[in-house]
Amino acid sequence: MTLRQAAKVVQKRSYAPYSKFRVGAAIKTDSGAIYLGCNVENVAYPEGTCAEAGAIAAMVAAGETEIAEVYVIADGLTPVTPCGGCRQKLAEFSHGEVIVTMGTVENDEEVRTRLSDLLPGAFGINHMIKND
Ligand code: THU
After folding, report:
1. Rounded to whole angstroms, how far apart are CA atoms 77 and 41?
2. Is residue 59 within 8 Å of 35, Cβ to Cβ?
3. Structure letter (DSSP) for residue 96
4. 92 in catalytic set
5. What is the 33 CA–ligand 1 centroid distance (Å)?
6. In what order do the strands lie in the sheet with 23-29?
7. pLDDT of residue 66
8. Is the beta carbon of 10 within 6 A of some atom in ligand 1?
9. Residue closest to 98 by CA, chosen among 106, 85, 109, 89
10. What is the arithmetic mean of pLDDT over 4-23?
11. What pLDDT digit, counting tens, does each position of 20-58 carry?
């Protein structure tokens, strides 16, 4: 199964009764394993979680922390792009060269980009160095 196919399967399981915008994310790690997540909304709107966050949680729960590749897919007419918060979450477990492919279930259009192009100047541990 390709990463796109895996993302499409989990996108269909999305729980998005409020926005009606279903998102699926598939993360492949350096081990070759694939972890999936979908957005899970809540009647208290800010409590909802993004697809990428779900996939990251599944990856970490399985004992993995090294993202090799990401695919995100949603309902829109054009390929979905990860929100700002998800870019930072992905950066925690990725090096800048990790490829993020964005797609839509509507057609075969895809956008492929490096995470470092999606989030230049990511906040990192290097910014936390201080004099005591
Ligand atoms: N959403 C994601 O799951 N990932 C993103 O990167 C963009 C936004 C979800 C959150 C919410 O459930 C719906 O899409 C509309 O914002």
Report:
1. 21
2. yes
3. T
4. no
5. 24
6. 34-38, 23-29, 67-74, 99-104, 107-114
7. 98
8. no
9. 89
10. 98
11. 999 999 999 999 999 999 999 999 999 999 999 999 999
Alpha carbon distance 88, 53 (integer Å): 10
Distance 130 CA to ligand 1 centre (A): 35
pTM here? Answer: 0.96
Maximum Cα–Cα distance across the chain: 54
Cβ atoms 67, 59 nearer than 8 A: yes
List C-alpha distances in Å: 60 to 12, 14, 24, 55, 63.
23, 20, 17, 9, 5
3-state secondary structure of 75: coil
Ligand 1: distance of its center to the CA of 15 in Å?
Answer: 11
Q: Identify the residue whose tokens are 């990725």.
A: 94
* 85-106 confidence digits (pLDDT tens): 999 999 999 988 999 999 999 9
Catalytic pick from 47, 52, 92, 97?
A: 52
